[in-house]
Amino acid sequence: MSTLAELRATVATLHAELTRYNLVSWTAGNVSARVPGEDLMVIKPSGVSYDDLGPDTMVVTDLHGELVEGALAPSSDTAAHAYVYRHMPEVGGVAHTHSPYATAWAARGEPIPCVLTMIADEFGGDIPVGPFALIGDDSIGRGIVETLRDSRSPAVLMAGHGPFTVGKDARAAVKAAVMLEDVARTVHFAHQLGTPHVIDKAHVDRLYARYQNVYGQ
Amino acid sequence: MSTLAELRATVATLHAELTRYNLVSWTAGNVSARVPGEDLMVIKPSGVSYDDLGPDTMVVTDLHGELVEGALAPSSDTAAHAYVYRHMPEVGGVAHTHSPYATAWAARGEPIPCVLTMIADEFGGDIPVGPFALIGDDSIGRGIVETLRDSRSPAVLMAGHGPFTVGKDARAAVKAAVMLEDVARTVHFAHQLGTPHVIDKAHVDRLYARYQNVYGQ
Amino acid sequence: MSTLAELRATVATLHAELTRYNLVSWTAGNVSARVPGEDLMVIKPSGVSYDDLGPDTMVVTDLHGELVEGALAPSSDTAAHAYVYRHMPEVGGVAHTHSPYATAWAARGEPIPCVLTMIADEFGGDIPVGPFALIGDDSIGRGIVETLRDSRSPAVLMAGHGPFTVGKDARAAVKAAVMLEDVARTVHFAHQLGTPHVIDKAHVDRLYARYQNVYGQ
Amino acid sequence: MSTLAELRATVATLHAELTRYNLVSWTAGNVSARVPGEDLMVIKPSGVSYDDLGPDTMVVTDLHGELVEGALAPSSDTAAHAYVYRHMPEVGGVAHTHSPYATAWAARGEPIPCVLTMIADEFGGDIPVGPFALIGDDSIGRGIVETLRDSRSPAVLMAGHGPFTVGKDARAAVKAAVMLEDVARTVHFAHQLGTPHVIDKAHVDRLYARYQNVYGQ
Asked: Which residues on B lie below 8 Å from D207 (Cβ)?
């Protein structure tokens, strides 16, 4: 099990994947991790450059977003992360970006159709759209949770806003954010010049089952 | 308050954000900062590679663009920066790029509609278009100022030319340039496959007020 | 002739070209090389980050995909690579990516038309589409081989999935993957605003013959 | 005046701008420089990776493309470069790429319209299309020269092939290649969602005259 110090380092480092894959501009995206066995989470501080993130700049809050440890104010999206952890006990990590192709689907309020084996593998079907919700209360968190509960997808496209992804840990949530932008982009390109073929549900199920059980080490 | 030496270093360094986010090609973009309490500004020299910028290559001009300090000729856009500083006392920094998506909206003379929470947060509504204006006199500066006065946006899309952004200091102006290209791109993508939903004015106002007051440290 | 140690190093290093040209996200692409003179291949392990690849992490399998040497499980695409080596003795290297533009053509099941001299040079004509095939048996490998046999192209766009490329060695297969994405992207752009002119077959033949014989050292 | 050793180093280094701005894939682009005062040019060797270029790998040919100095075969585009030097004495540098947006315009055989001040500044009007021409004799060189003679543009889009750019020296030719891709991309984006306004000829003339005389140091 991760100690808190290791988790701070892990979460800090994972933000570098957001910049590596061009999922974020300036400071507009964040990753968090649940502290295993405690009602706590580690999250990015608000408005701090990705260049300046390290274990010591990460902040720790409780699962209502109240600061527990750290010198900086937590991400302005902390309430949404906290809501997810309170209502989805299986989730150990959350990532939020405004990655451009995924956010374009979110701006139109359109799910990403399952037209690629990679979407079947990773997302188990169409990638769903959540409601338009304003920041400031539990609306965003509730929209995320209610949408993800009806889906196998670890990603939700919050309408007019951008994607949130979840995973068993922070690395899995970040992986989902990276793969989401990849498929959002490819399907965008595919639709620009025609209509790609939607994969049959039975094939999607086989691909998803295999990938979840066989892929990796 | 910044000393002039610090300001030269800050402005030189901020140009690296223009290249990091691919907002500029070759030497075609520039950042300036007002020298607090003086009728002076620090700006990029004309036609110098971003690789070769440092505190010593930055030039200082008065607010009519006349060279005060430095061995190099100031940016060919100096007159536009200077006009902004003369007419907008609250502005401490100006950035100019030809970032591709923002410039594409500028080429069509179309404002970027407020279809994303990020646009509401940062720009407080649609991102406006300024007039087509030729370089060589105060036309560009006047177009920028007249357009920004009617808007909460720190960014203006000068028609057929490209974006100018302003801020309380040079870092804020550069942040606006980065966020502008981000949303210009996402809204471009959204429009390629449909029509995104415009956010209600009341929601825009709430998002803008919150972001301007709560976000960051 | 390459020793096995050299081949492990070569294959590990070639994966850096996949990331350099943005052909892959996270761990979703792989390169293999036939071991000259033996019924063996060197391939990427499954689900391992490109940052962590080195000669020692590469795995060796036989040409039915059974692990012969190495501590990690081989790529989940190993069966497809192995099928290609069994049925195309002239092939010494295979690469597989989900590069976005090539995969968009694959999602629509459309071949890339030969509208650029670069396509004639490298691919000798249209870049063909292979069947939709599920992972888990020889379907993907068979689809690749049957498609490439009818074509001069070293690349096949597997429908709803992504591209596979082959070459006399792993470097040639990776080069084909890089050039494929380049032309997939350019032809995508060309089609977005009109219809490019297809190059006459006689010109294609002359370009292909020249490039295959004259280009390089 | 440059010595030959300096020119070899300059030409080698300038290739790094092609990769920095993503104008080339693998080995598919090249820069050359005329040796001042001599009927010689320095050019990239054929099929050599950009990672492996240095002063010593550059080759020297006469202005008919015959190797004069160097251990490697010259670029397969050498004949086109040589033709330009023989017929345009004012040209000191040539660059050739298959940069994706410029090549997409070339694939459709459409000139890039002068809808941006940057195009007026750098190219003095529309960026013209040259004929479709096969490699192997003087057809490409002749197409470049005949097209550029009717234009102020330092760039020509060779139909179905890609751009060639020229300049007073190799650096100017590379700058034109970089700026060409920048505007090809922006105008592509602009056309995707509407029709940008073409700048009046009188304004183009004023912008071009000013930029050629005032910009830079």
From this structure: 134-135
